[in-house]
Design brief:
3% strand, 15 helices, two-stranded antiparallel sheet, A middle domain of Talin 1, two-stranded antiparallel ribbon
Length: 421
């Protein structure tokens, strides 16, 4: 009986022990799991987009074009939540330009309105129009584009002439093909390409077979590029290995570099404040589809994912919930943990307000238009929330005693007068 009583007491004591706090190793594993899940959803939704593109090609109609556009919008949601992995992870940053580069000089790809102009001193490929020209002779270079393939887009046309705005691949090239140019400025309306642009039997815009060929090639390339990143974040993949190789402190610094850089320089600065200052619809991320509010909103969701160690998958089968940076901060400085959560919640609320306004009928490019004081204020509130949030991220860096963490900046925030020079 004595031994039994001792055993029961020991078991009770064991049950009463508090759960072990999250460790940096656990946090980094969750971070990798969130990345893998988000890129996996990005790949799956791109494959769904490919199915819709094939249906459009087989039976061009306003219905199949609308379905392809809806599939593109859906595909953007998980991908934009991955952007917090870009900064700090060199492997991701080096790859990102293949799938999400913007803005693009659309005259490289297809026909454009006369208002676009016919030349650019900075870009000899400005109106190359690969869809209309099987053989491109530009700047003393001849490119055989007789067959539009993923290899042609990736190897010959992406950043042709070493010009960053020669974007031939990725989400925004596909977006332009599905919507066409948005010629509405800061008035209502997105791009309005007709389905007959993809119909060789009733062709508008010319070269319909080649336009379909380009759309299929760009979509296939997007899938192969996303597969590369899924593999990189799988257990044993290159991205996970890079993260482990940095050590625990280096890995935590990577998470915070991604959050801080996306929050401040990239999203608050380059993607939002710059366009707001200039009242320029060309400075919106998804400019052909008027989907910018959703891309910005999902960037904010993505930052929350990496901080709280969670991810909500498209089908509910790939959800992640694990050890988080939030737990490490709470253990180190509970007050700062509450502050950081409050700032992240405030940012989410600001972007939910922007999203609600867009869903109510005023697109993002209208919100940033000159003279729209109310819309401008909604967008500025989002910028302010991100800047405020970044200050707390900086305090988290100090609380965790991490060194050499630098966030991306932006002239629109750090040197506004230079924007107008």
């Amino acid at each position: 009986m004595k031994s039994l009583k001792y055993g029961l007491m020991a078991a009770a004591a064991f049950i009463a022990l508090p759960a072990l706090a999250a460790t940096p190793e656990d946090v980094l594993k969750t971070y990798g799991d969130v990345a893998e899940a988000a890129y996996t959803d990005s790949l799956k939704s791109a494959q769904d987009l490919q199915t819709a593109v094939e249906a459009l090609a087989a039976n061009p109609s306003e219905e199949t074009l609308a379905a392809a556009r809806a599939a593109w919008r859906k595909a953007r949601n998980p991908y934009q939540q991955t952007e917090a992995f870009r900064f700090g992870n060199a492997l991701v940053d080096d790859w990102e330009g293949k799938v999400n580069a913007w803005p693009l000089d659309e005259g490289l790809i297809d026909y454009v309105d006369v208002s676009y102009g016919d030349s650019s001193e900075a870009n000899v490929f400005y109106t190359a129009n690969v869809i209309a020209n099987p053989i491109l002779k530009v700047g003393g270079e001849t490119i055989d584009a007789t067959e539009i393939t993923p290899e042609l887009l990736a190897d010959k046309l992406q950043e042709a002439g070493e010009v960053e705005t020669n974007v031939a691949t990725g989400y925004h090239a596909i977006e332009f093909l599905l919507w066409g140019q948005d010629l509405n400025g800061t008035d209502a309306g997105a791009g309005n390409r007709p389905a007959t642009d993809f119909d060789p039997a009733n062709c508008t815009g010319g070269n319909c077979e080649r336009r379909v060929q380009y759309l299929k090639a760009a979509t296939a390339l997007l899938i192969s590029d996303l597969q590369e990143m899924v593999d990189a974040w799988a257990p044993g993949g290159a991205a996970r290995a890079d993260l482990v190789g940095k050590g625990e402190a280096g890995g935590l610094a990577t998470i915070l570099t991604g959050m801080g850089s996306l929050s401040y320089g990239e999203l608050a600065g380059e993607r939002i404040k710059l366009g707001l200052m200039l009242h320029d619809p060309e400075e919106e991320h998804d400019c052909f589809s008027d989907n910018t509010h959703m891309s910005h909103y999902n960037d904010v969701v993505g930052m929350r994912n990496v901080y709280f160690g969670t991810y909500k998958s498209l089908d509910g089968k790939n959800d992640v919930a694990g050890a988080s940076l939030a737990e490490l901060v709470a253990e180190k400085d509970p007050a700062l943990a509450e502050e950081m959560k409050a700032k992240l919640d405030a940012s989410l609320a600001a972007f939910e307000a922007m999203k609600a306004r867009a869903e109510g009928g005023e697109a993002y490019d209208q919100m940033i238009g000159e003279g729209n004081d109310e819309g401008n204020a909604v967008v500025q509130a989002a910028v302010d929330a991100l800047i405020d949030q970044t200050k707390s991220i900086e305090r988290v860096v100090k609380a965790l005693e991490l060194e050499e963490v630098a966030f991306e900046g932006s002239d629109s925030l750090d040197n506004p007068s230079s924007v107008f020079q």
